[in-house]
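Entry type: protein chain
Record version: 2
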Amino acid sequence: MLDSPKTRPIVVGFEKHLTLDTNLSRRTKSDRNGRLLGPTSTVKESTKPTSDVSPTRSSPKRILLTGATGTLGYNVLRLLAARADVHVIAPIRGTHPRLRDFPRSVHFIEHELSDAVHTAQIFERARPDIILHCAASGLRPPKGTWFDMMRFNVESTLGLFQMNCRFNHKSRFIYISTGLVYRNQNRALVESDPIEALHPYGASKAAADLMLQAAASEFGRQLTILRPFSFTGRHDGGGRLFPYLLTSSLAGAPVEMTDGLQVRDFCAVNDIARAVVAAVDREQESLVEKFNLGSGQARTVRDVVERVVAELGLQTNLLFGVRKAHAYEPHHLVADTALARQALRWQPEVSLSYAVWQLAQEIAPELNLKEPDHSPWPTLPT
């Protein structure tokens, strides 16, 4: 049973915020399944809007962005915040120092995506034109939190989409999935390839991916699914490959890795964020659209890391073959990006080495790395 509904506080310390309707909490309640109920009737999803609540054409586009503190979400937010034609509402779990520098066109709200009642309050007040769902949990969760990650990645996603249906607003839903959803094909993957993943994170995203496609078809809602492959750059963190490389090198510790023979498709996170924004701006042509996002270049992890280290002049000790790869990590994970390049009119613009250099300026400036060429790496012969 959900707690009794109440209006949640704005994040402490943020001057810019979205003021929620304080009367909304007295007009809604929830049943034991988390569905929102009115005072006397149940909620039924509908594909027929009862009224046009869209902003006027001259109004800024209203975007509800989840995951603004994550690597990709943060970089998407940076691009959107620089524009005058959008207004971003960003639910976040807590404060982050980097979020304080954004303009007043960005409103941060303290929110847990698992809270269906507060999500409804945000939807009713914000009336988003686009729901951009970047939030996700754990690439490599410990076994104790495995089911928590599954629940968050699937249930929070479906909850947002259900709310989109409930409020009868002609908004688009853009879901950030992952290249890990695909069954291994030992070649570049296309959007029509089958989804089948045993990797925990990939499986959770694949489940949400498929359920959203079913829901969009059932309720006639526009859905764009973006499947980014490997990326790094500003605001990358945790135990991911390149933050680990930089912090270990700064500490003078060896960088312990797998054999590095996995074939991957690496891209700068800012380029992936540009593709996401291109999807936001694009007029959708069909009910459900799917795009792979990546460099389209197949390189082994070892080759990628050694090239980045050389181009940055990084003094480090790479130890390959020390760690074991994840049991369900695909050997070959490379995107065919032809569809995204054509439909989104997008292509990567910077090299991976430059993306890692930008990350180093944030988390390890003491390394004094050489700024590399910004241009994308040359295309490999096929």
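Comment: The first strand starts at residue 29 and ends at 30.
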